[in-house]
Write a structure and sequence with these properties.
The structure holds 2 protein chains of 2 kinds. Chain A is of the alpha/beta class. Chain A has helices spanning 26-29, 32-35, 76-91, 104-114, 142-155, 171-180, 219-232, 246-254, 265-268, 272-286; strands spanning 5-7, 10-12, 16-18, 46-47, 59-62, 65-68, 95-100, 120-126, 160-163, 185-188, 192-194, 197-198, 203-204, 211-214, 237-239, 259-262. Chain A is built from 10 helices and 16 strands. In chain A, a hairpin with a 2-residue loop joins strand 5 (59-62) and strand 6. Chain B starts with a strand and ends in a 7-residue tail after the last strand. Chain B contains 4 helices and 16 strands. The chains are: A alpha/beta, B alpha/beta. The complex binds flavin-adenine dinucleotide, flavin mononucleotide and FE2/S2 (inorganic) cluster.
Chain lengths: 308, 263
């Protein structure tokens, strides 16, 4: 059974990874042998300078999901490289580092800090964080997306993945802009802008007023965006958005995703990524699928045969 | 994937009063590992409602792991329906525990508000165990504030552990009438020999912090915040401290009392 998939020139042993911002402190709490079975790890987005993040409350649960407005709290590129990267490298799983610059120059500097580090096999450009008070995200502007991806591609020694936002009029326009600029893959999708209000206090629940919705609540919408984008572009898609089970992951794969990331579900069931991986294998065995490639984009849309 | 995640069996789920329960779990891999102040993170439901797990301080860890909890919403409501033999998906033990008092400490004052008393029984169990190992054990004092008589628990267990217990209730149905800070005047707080532990509502801990600053007292507070992962991954449970934002689940839940910034 072949589970391996490729992004750019990098081969991953299987398609299962974790979504940025939903996995951490593996060295302290996790069975590293199990973590080592995943296709890749994606740590929380790193910015050039350290960020403190947003004021509390930063999270709230909602029907079948949650809102978050963490505000990319992170130790900055140098802090990350010194304090976090070594323990991630020791796990031995390929790393995809998510980076976010506040300008094209910052993105370029970030790339130069990361693309030659051991174990880092790709960079994910976070063009779509809803929690930084920006009026327009890079991922809402096809020109900006194109310009940025192109600049980064010019210098990066590793494949470049553009992480896009769901709140766009037409996902195919942005997806194509990223592809045309040379992106090696797309990550779909980041959280949906959302809010919750405490009616007693008549105040927003989140300290940041609004946040991003994630979890199973967004899965059908994420699936539709992945399917739509996959119809438009040739580059691989890393899909995320409410994946809880292997069946959820398989839906994204059939819709055209090459890799799948477990995000919010890690908070509820930290074993989910491994369960998803095992479930995909079981499905392949049960359905006599020898190669995961046979499933990617394998959705049947022709009219079902009707019996005369 | 975490070594901390396990399915355990419920041994008992006893109703103590209309809103308070004591849950007892057969969790052998937590016993022997858990330290006072640490907590467990329980998935109360297999489905998606409520969505998050729920954190609870370990109240006792002898043969079984016990928690003391108050039913305040859907999560604790579902928990209250668990029966003997039911499986329970638990992450734990999690978090930074209380430091043991320094050798100069002659007097430990625990200030608890309501359900905040939970981490102190296991603390006094540990302090007593240290005594049997030959450590000098300081005088133990529990200042315990609750709404009313039915909200004040375990006084017998604390007394059995050698604690002097002082109670204040809002309606005066047990102990003195008023807030727990009414009890402060009963204690001789010598800053060189006193160590404070506290757990309870933020306003109570904020009052204690002001008192502690005024009298140059040192101690630790066990904090609460809404949690998703409880593993330090989501950075969702941050509170403000003099060291910047700190996660309650990973950097805490126990913090230096004087470092917390109550808002
Ligand atoms: C480290 C830690 C240890 C804890 N230990 C215990 C314990 O030993 N016993 C116990 O009974 N509870 C404890 N709690 C609190 C417990 O986790 C909550 O009571 C529980 O999650 C409530 O879930 P629910 O679905 O029943 O109520 P929800 O619907 O989640 O809450 C009902 C109402 O209470 C408010 N609320 C919820 N959680 C808190 C909180 N932590 N502080 C203030 N207000 C809150 C909500 O805003 C809401 O208005 C602890 C919390 C933490 C973080
Ligand atoms: C608490 C939290 C923090 C997140 N932080 C980041 C981040 O730093 N960078 C990023 O690109 N996406 C971040 N995300 C978005 C996820 O990576 C993912 O795109 C999104 O949550 C949808 O997947 P899910 O429903 O499986 O969680 C975060 C999501 C959550 C819930
Ligand atoms: S609950 Fe996720 S970091 Fe504390």
């Amino acid at each position: 059974m072949n589970l391996s998939v490729k992004i750019g020139n990098v081969r991953f042993k299987n398609p299962v990874t974790v979504a940025s911002g939903t996995f951490g402190h593996a060295e302290q709490y996790y069975d590293l042998e199990e973590v080592g079975r995943l296709g890749a790890l994606v740590p929380k987005t790193v910015t050039l300078k350290a960020r403190l993040g947003n004021p509390p409350a930063r999270i709230v649960e909602t029907p079948a999901g949650m809102l978050n407005a963490i505000g990319i709290e992170n130790p900055g590129a140098d802090g990350f490289i010194h304090h976090k990267l070594p323990s991630l490298q020791r796990i031995g799983v390929p790393l995809i580092i998510s980076i976010l610059g506040h300008s094209d120059e910052e993105f370029v500097t970030l790339v130069s800090k990361f693309h030659e580090q051991r174990q880092i096999v790709a960079l994910e450009l976070n063009l779509s964080c809803p929690n930084l008070g920006k009026k327009v995200l890079v991922a809402q502007d096809p020109q900006a997306t194109h310009r940025l991806v192109k600049r980064v591609k010019k210098i990066s020694r590793v494949p470049v993945i553009a992480k896009l936002a769901p709140q766009v009029t037409d996902i195919t326009v942005i997806a194509r802009a990223a592809q045309d600029a040379g992106a090696d893959a797309l990550s779909l999708i980041n959280t949906f802008p959302a809010m919750a209000i405490d009616t007693l206090r008549r105040r927003p629940i989140l300290g940041n007023l609004s946040g991003g919705l994630s979890g199973p609540a967004i899965r059908p919408m994420a699936l539709c965006l992945v399917y739509t984008a996959a119809q438009e572009v040739k580059i691989p898609i890393i899909a995320m958005g409410g994946i809880v089970t292997a069946d959820d992951a398989l839906q994204f794969i059939l819709a055209g995703a090459t890799m799948v990331a477990v995000g919010t579900t890690n908070f509820i069931n930290p074993r989910a990524p491994i369960e998803v991986l095992e479930g995909i294998k079981k499905y392949m065995r049960g359905n006599k699928v020898k190669d995961i490639q046979q499933l990617i984009g394998g959705l049947r849309t022709e009219a079902a045969e009707t019996k005369g | 994937m975490p070594q901390l995640q396990n399915i355990y069996r419920v041994v008992a789920n006893k109703k103590l009063s209309p809103r308070f329960y004591q849950l007892c779990i057969d969790a052998p891999s937590i016993i022997g590992k858990v330290q006072p102040g640490q907590f467990i993170h329980i998935r109360v439901n297999d489905g998606l409602e409520p969505f998050f797990r729920r954190p609870f301080s370990v109240y006792r860890a002898q043969k079984y792991v016990e928690i003391l909890y108050e039913v305040i919403g859907p999560g604790t409501q579902i928990l209250s329906l668990k029966k003997k033999g039911d499986p329970l998906d638990v992450l734990g033990p999690i978090g930074k525990s209380f430091d043991m008092p320094s050798p100069e400490t002659r007097q430990v004052v625990m200030v608890a508000g309501g359900i905040g008393v939970a981490p102190f029984l296991i603390l006094t169990d540990f302090l007593r165990k240290r005594q049997s190992l030959g450590f000098d054990v300081p005088k133990l004092i529990l200042l315990y504030g609750g709404r009313t008589k039915g909200h004040v628990f375990s006084m017998k267990e604390f007394i059995n552990n050698g604690c002097a217990v002082h109670v204040a209730t809002d309606d005066g149905s047990v102990g003195v009438r008023g807030r727990v800070d009414k009890l402060f005047s009963r204690i001789d707080f010598n800053p060189r020999t006193t160590w404070i532990y506290t757990c309870g509502p933020k306003p109570m801990m904020a009052v204690l912090q002001r008192f502690a600053r005024r009298h140059r007292l040192q101690g630790q507070a066990c904090c609460e915040e809404t949690m998703a992962c409880a593993l330090g991954a989501c950075l969702g449970c941050s509170i403000r401290t003099t060291q910047g934002f700190r996660t309650v689940c990973y950097d805490g839940p126990v913090f230096d009392l004087n470092e917390i910034i109550f808002e």
